[in-house]
Design goal:
Distance between the termini: 71 Å
Oligomer: single chain
Strand order of the largest sheet: 3-2-1-4-5-6
Structural class: mainly alpha
Radius of gyration: 33 Å
Number of helices: 27
Strand content: under 5%
Length: 599
């Protein structure tokens, strides 16, 4: 819609049709580099407008592919347009198919081989080789090399080594992002601004105003609230970095002339430079509108809350204190929908004014629980620090919803044991000091594992959170051990330095506790299994070992009975008492062979 509106304005000023398409598509894209960095710096990715902004940016990044494919076609004559479109589609299909096949069958093998060498330089070299080779391939097919780099990034993000790739390129990302901002500044032509100030001012104001109005209106149309829509529209109103690529490609193909390209690049750069001010203005306007709204906004009766509650896959977080905040943050990392419920109105109002889905209410009351559709929730996480209040809420939820999966933060081991044994609640006791955020990470990790998040992703997310907390310092407690300890599984490997033996002892203790809880508290046993999948293997190995031992006992008894029945040698024919060449009785040899085969 934005591209069509910009192209229409270009037609009014007399631009040719192919230039209208390129300019409209280029200016319709927003800057992922600027917006995502701002959202990350202000910790706003978890907010409603942050998620909406991220979704729009993701869709715009996907729209880059057809724009880069179509731009070379627009440089051709109208008579051969059909053939050009067919050739471009064929090239794009060939490039996408080759990249998909390489990523599925070749890239995984290469990364496994390089990772086995334990060389960070080789691993980083393979990442750069992947990006450059994809860029050269698309450029050789007549497409943009930027398209190849973009598709290479998509392909790398789908491998199981994506977290290591992200960690290795993190230092370069900051440097290259700084160089990108530097190039944006170089594109601002001060002499052009002075000589054509009215034109440049009108272009910048037009870009910002048109995009902000359209994105705000579309956000309202898709069900977002007015404060969220305004904040989303303002932060996405600038031009994007792909406009530089599209306009540069169009100039090289003769679609745009030099002066027009310079004017567009200067205007887009100025609009990007306005992003921090627009984001700050949007936050202030949104906060004022939030404060002026009625109290139903804080009770879970507005559009945002209704959308989450009516979904089929969401979590409920009870309590928004120190533990609840980190749990919500971890859920936001995997874009898992959740509703937070807090009995302290000040905490609820403060979080709600920040755009977070945290509302005021007592979930221990049935009418409140039904208003938040707790019965449809995938899981409920009780993060209340007070022992009596936490117990009251858990008892009420278990009475209302007998089959509901519930996590609860326990105060001590006695509290944990009673919750697990009597109410089938996965209760966990923090084992680290109260004054550190680190105590909540194993709790949040267990929640994410129970929600089906793969173990390697949970480990990467937790490690990233640790880096954020400690800033280069590492934890001395293994994450899995801490998680099991908070589930009430005592450590049996104190003093053991061999990591293999430590892990075996830990898995055995987890398997033993899982078996104890399996009958009375099946959900607790399920959580232990999710936290330590090796505990299931321990059970299988023990069952197999018991079967082998039983078989050996049976065979041994059969052998003894046979020897007794055989009696003395004179009671049997001479030929049946002759020994074999190796001195072993034939019947004993047969039993031994059958025993080995059975084992």
């Amino acid at each position: 819609i934005t591209a069509a509106a910009v192209a229409g304005i270009g037609g009014l000023v007399g631009l040719p049709a192919n230039a209208q398409v390129v300019i409209g598509g280029g200016l319709a894209l927003s800057s992922s580099a600027f917006v995502l960095q701002l959202l990350k710096d202000k910790n706003q990715l978890a907010t409603r407008f942050g998620k909406a902004s991220f979704g729009i940016l993701l869709f715009q990044d996907l729209a880059v592919v057809p724009l880069l494919v179509v731009t070379p076609i627009l440089a051709g004559s109208g008579s051969g347009l059909t053939a050009a479109v067919g050739a471009a589609l064929l090239k794009a299909g060939l490039a996408l198919g080759s990249i998909a096949l390489a990523g599925r069958y070749l890239l995984g093998y290469l990364f496994r081989t390089v990772a086995a060498s334990n060389s960070q330089e080789a691993f980083l070299g393979l990442v750069l080789l992947t990006v450059l080779s994809m860029s050269f391939m698309t450029e050789g097919l007549g497409l943009s090399n930027t398209l190849g780099a973009f598709l290479a990034g998509v392909m790398l993000s789908e491998t199981k080594y994506r977290h290591q790739v992200e960690a290795d390129i993190a230092p370069f990302r900051g440097i290259l992002l700084g160089l990108f901002f530097l190039t944006v500044g170089y594109e601002i032509d001060l002499r052009l601004i002075v000589s054509q100030l009215p034109v440049v001012g009108a272009l910048v104001a037009g870009i910002l105003g048109l995009k902000a109005a359209l994105i705000t209106a579309l956000s309202l149309g898709f069900g977002l609230s007015l404060p969220t829509s305004l904040q989303t529209g303002l932060i996405l109103s600038q031009g994007g970095e792909f406009a530089f690529v599209a306009f540069g490609l169009a100039r090289s193909l003769g679609i745009l002339d030099g002066p027009t390209t310079k004017l567009l690049l200067t205007s887009a750069s100025l609009s990007m430079a306005m992003t921090p001010f627009l984001a700050s203005a949007g936050a202030k306007i949104s906060k004022r509108l939030e404060e002026q709204s009625d109290f139903t906004h804080y009770l879970g009766q507005d559009v945002d809350a209704t959308e989450i509650k009516n979904s089929d896959d969401f979590a409920v977080v009870v309590g928004y204190g120190a533990v609840g905040k980190v749990v919500c943050n971890l859920l936001d990392t995997k874009l898992i929908k959740y509703v937070g419920v807090e009995t302290d109105p000040n905490k609820a109002i403060q979080a709600r004014n920040q755009g977070l889905p945290v509302f005021y209410g007592d979930i221990g009351r049935q009418e409140v629980a039904e208003a938040f559709n707790v019965g449809k929730a995938k899981i409920v996480i009780v993060c209340i620090s007070d022992k009596a209040q936490a117990t009251r809420v858990v008892i009420a939820l278990r009475r209302f919803y007998p089959d509901l999966k519930i996590f609860c933060r326990a105060v001590d081991s006695d509290h944990q044991q009673r919750l697990q044994d009597t109410l089938d609640v996965a209760a966990m006791v923090p084992v680290l000091p109260e004054d550190t955020v680190m105590m909540t990470l194993p709790f949040g990790a267990a929640v994410m594992r129970s929600l089906g998040v793969p173990a390697e992703e949970v480990a990467a997310i937790i490690e990233a959170k640790k880096r954020d907390v400690y800033k280069e310092r590492s934890s001395m407690v293994r994450e899995e051990e801490a998680m099991l300890a908070q589930l009430g599984i005592p450590s049996t490997n104190e003093g053991e330095e061999d990591p293999v033996i430590r892990e075996q002892l830990m898995d055995k203790a987890a398997a033993q506790r899982r078996d104890e809880k399996l009958e009375k508290s099946p959900f607790v046993a399920e959580v232990i299994e999710d936290a330590c999948p090796e505990s299931v293997c321990i059970d299988d190995e023990e069952d197999s070992a018991r079967g082998v031992v039983d078989a050996e006992v049976v065979v041994s008894q059969l052998s003894e009975e046979t020897n007794v029945e055989a009696g003395s040698e004179e009671e049997l024919p001479q030929e049946q008492t002759e020994a074999t060449d190796d001195g072993v009785d034939p019947l004993t040899s047969t039993l031994k062979n059958e025993s080995e085969a059975f084992q």
